[in-house]
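Entry 0007
Protein: E3 ubiquitin-protein ligase NRDP1
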Amino acid sequence: MGYDTERFVGYVNEGLLCSICRAVLEEAVQAPCEHAFCAACIRGWLRHHSSCPEDRQPLDGALLRPLYRYMKNDLNRLQLHCKNREHGCEMVCSLESIDRHERECEYSQILCSNPGCPVQTERRNLDGHLAVCDYRSRACPNGCGCTVLGAEDTQHNCVAELRTELELLRSEMICRVEEAKHEMESRLDSQRRHMVQKESILQNEIEELKSQMSRVLADVRSLMAAERRHRQELEQAELEKREL
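Output (structure tokens):
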């Protein structure tokens, strides 16, 4: 739907009106036959029809294009009243800037920001409402440290709230202890596996050293036996020399 013509200051050219809703174009698009429409209006029309609503020529939504630049400039220069005029806003803006103004307008009706509060108030009155809102949150006046809503004051029980908080802390502590326990067990298992691997490697190295020692001792015994034979041969040779 377009902008209500009654909001505009002065005359609005007929060519700037939507051919469907007859209001001033909003997010305007143009058909190949040069008829202009609000984007929402023409897309709603094309869900049930396949022709231009003005001249009944065949129309495909994919052929819709933005307005000519001169038409868009004419639209943007139009002056209109803020939609909150009936609430007291006297601002008149160009169509190009009206959305920005209305997003920030002090006379806009907005919902209270406190969760659960159904009150709508003008933006300029929001701070005053928040100061007395039944759904505003504040610290417990008894000093238990809890945050309570104004609507819950009569139901707030410091002992019950603290007991609940204590149970939550206890549950959280148990969870953390269990997590720490599992982590320590995992680390110990990892270290245990590492120590078993190291022990196996050392055992293999010891066995290898024993094997080497055995070979060395065998070589020593062999050398000593050869030395004895050599000495005996020398003694025998000396005896034979003496006899000669």
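Curator remark: Strands lie at 28-30, 36-38, 65-66, 79-81, 92-94, 109-111, 120-122, 137-139, 147-149. The radius of gyration is 48 Å.
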